[in-house]
Write a structure and sequence with these properties.
The structure is a single chain. The protein is α+β, with helices and mostly antiparallel strands and 607 residues long. It contains 21 helices and twelve strands. Strand 4 (479-481) and strand 5 form a beta hairpin. Helix 1 runs antiparallel to helix 5 (119-147) and helix 4 crosses helix 5 (119-147). The radius of gyration is 28 Å and the shape is globular. It starts with 6 loop residues before the first helix and ends with a strand.
Length: 607
């Protein structure tokens, strides 16, 4: 019986009991929403609505209006022809599928609609996600036991599960990507160790399949290949020996290639059907993407919004552990450190570096099996220190564990804001169990996910004003004079766009956002007949538009009289301070119209 109750197994049981117990009482009917809706969409579209290519998603629009599953349907992208297609890859759907089919076969007999979203589907996905979490923990323990004692393995398990943001994202947020990625990383490490130790083909197949599934969940995770690539085992110390090891597993290698192609084939066939390309980037949002030349390294580590070492400070000991790993095992240090540094750089290069409503820096959880090894080497060294330093370190770790749990409680009780925390707000609510309306004023600006933001003039100051009466306009060929000698801008029949103005964002402000008020006068010919009203378009530009807003220039009684038009626009999360804010008239029916007295006002939030 003792072998079933070793320190590390007891720690594993505690982690599993906590995860299953906590998650079981936090299941709700809105589990399939936001990003999860996007991961799940191929299953619902294919097997419920008989539309595997997603040619028509009116059913999704209706469902979203009824259930409010997502602020906008960003889960649907478009191809070059403007046809709808899945935004996310098929990796999660592949892993959801056993639980989806189980729910699909049971829904009707249990008296629920077999619509892909009723309670049996919600519960089935959660049960599946819990199982993936448990598998990840089991293999994480197996990896740790390869290098460390029972006691150190137990410590690393407890710290990972309770003293980091793991406790949030692998419990009530376990339908997100990091749950599977943590499991696959643990499996990858285990099979990498075993393959380099025993040279068995089944481990090579497992490595290939694991990396393929990781890439089908999140394409950048293909970099996990760095771990087995640079790994050196007991009989593999040179690149020549590495190739000999691969060569000795030729049959397994062929089998791995066939299996991986079979897994990737549905995705590639879908891309080819929709775009004519076997590999396609469906993340078509100029406002979000990778900027390798402008990584947010300091923000990811230390910002009050989501700083990893601010909200998960215990991982500082794992980073220190890399030094002790280097001193004790350079062959182990090289693959793990290279992977972590590259992964961290890619995570920090994502323009939306705060990763939505995450607790701390969510995607770093994928690296925790690697960091767990580094943390284990820190404990190896720690147990060699003098008692006083061990005591100080363990007291510090205990406080970090308490802080993590308390701040997680604050997040669940809407004290710690998942999007908008600032330095002033963080310290005003530090270790507090309540928050006042005055404290909430310290948060970053509130953004409506639908884009329908409300301007509160009392909170803003007018800082810049740009005017143009078109007497000195660059559009000289379109300037006209009226009978009084006043100039105005004339858009002729056939002019689709006009009155285009553009400024670099850093020329307008140094703040994180501004409100822009646009005013002008407009009139139409009395004979104008319009099927579509012209639009005032305001947007940001970063190799493509984002934060796009259009307002109709309604003309119910078009004639020769001028009427005054005004509109306000709040800038989105800025990708780069060098991006351009621009406005223009989109004259959709290309009618004749006149514009005059353009005024653009810039408002900054009060200090």
């Amino acid at each position: 019986m003792k072998r079933f109750f070793t320190p590390s197994l007891c720690a594993l049981y505690v982690c599993i009991a906590f995860i299953v117990g906590f998650r079981s009482v936090h299941i709700h009917k809105g589990e399939i929403a936001w990003d999860v809706l996007g991961y799940y969409l191929p299953l619902a579209s294919t097997f419920v609505h008989d539309d595997p290519a997603l040619t028509n998603y009116d059913w999704l629009k209706q469902l979203n209006e009824k259930e409010n599953l997502s602020g906008t349907l960003y889960q649907v992208s478009t191809n070059e022809k403007g046809e709808p297609m899945y935004f996310f890859l098929f990796g999660w759907s592949i892993c959801y599928s056993p639980w989806f089919f189980a729910a699909h076969s049971l829904a009707a007999p249990l008296g629920y609609p077999a619509d892909g979203f009723s309670l049996p589907y919600q519960y089935a996905l959660v049960i599946g996600a819990m199982l993936y979490t448990i598998i990840g923990l089991i293999y994480f323990r197996k990896v740790l036991r390869t290098f460390f004692s029972e006691s150190i393995t137990a410590l690393v398990l407890i710290i990972t599960a309770f003293a980091t943001n793991y406790c949030h994202h692998l419990t009530i947020d376990d339908l997100g990507t990091v749950n599977l990625l943590f499991m696959f990383m643990s499996l990858l490490l285990w099979h990498t160790i075993q393959w380099h130790k025993k040279g068995k083909g089944k481990n090579l197949i497992a490595i290939a399949v694991t990396i393929t599934l990781m890439a089908l969940i999140k394409p950048s995770e293909v970099l996990a290949l760095l771990i087995p690539l640079f790994w050196k085992g007991e009989a593999v110390n040179t690149w020549k020996q590495k190739w000999q090891l691969i060569g000795s597993s030729r049959k397994a290698l062929i089998a791995a290639i066939v299996i991986c192609l079979a897994l990737a084939m549905p995705q590639m066939v879908y891309w080819y059907h929709k775009t004519g390309q076997l590999i396609y980037d469906s993340y078509k949002n100029p406002g979000v993407g990778l900027d390798f030349l402008s990584p947010h390294l300091a923000d990811v580590l230390f910002s009050y919004r989501k700083g990893w070492l601010l909200y998960t400070p215990i991982m500082l000991f794992a980073l220190i552990g890399f030094w002790f790993l280097y001193r004790n095992s350079k062959r182990l240090f090289v693959p793990l450190f290279i992977y972590f540094i590259v992964a961290f750089y890619i995570i920090a290069s994502w323009t939306e570096w705060w990763y939505g409503a995450a607790f701390s820096t969510r995607p770093l959880i994928t690296t925790y099996p690697v960091l767990g090894i580094a943390l284990g080497f820190f404990f190896v060294q720690l147990f060699q220190w003098k008692m006083i330093w061990r005591s100080v370190t363990f007291c510090t770790m205990a406080f970090f564990l308490f802080l993590n749990q308390f701040q997680w409680w604050q997040l669940r009780n809407y004290i710690l804001d998942p999007y908008r925390t600032t330095k002033a707000y963080y310290w005003s609510t530090f270790l507090r169990t309540q928050v006042t309306p005055d404290q909430r004023k310290l948060l970053l600006v509130s953004r409506d996910f639908s884009g329908d933001n409300v301007f509160q003039e009392a909170n803003y100051n007018l800082t810049k004003t740009f005017t143009d009466d078109f007497s000195q306009s660059k559009e000289k060929d379109k300037i006209r004079l009226d009978s009084s000698g006043n100039s105005f801008l004339q858009l002729q029949t056939g002019d689709e766009f006009g009155m285009t103005r553009k400024w670099k964002y850093n020329e307008l402000t140094a703040r994180d956002h501004i409100w822009v008020e646009v005013e002008f006068d407009v009139r139409f010919d009395s004979t104008v007949q319009m099927n579509q009203d012209p639009l005032l378009t305001t947007t940001m530009d970063h190799k493509g538009t984002y934060g796009y807003q259009t307002i109709e220039l309604r003309c119910d009684t078009c004639g020769l009289e001028w009427f005054h038009f005004s509109s306000r626009y709040m800038t989105p999360e800025i990708r780069s301070k060098k991006d351009h804010f621009q406005l223009y008239i989109w004259n959709r029916d290309e009618v004749s119209m006149q514009l005059d007295n353009l005024v653009v006002k810039i408002y900054e939030q009060n200090d």
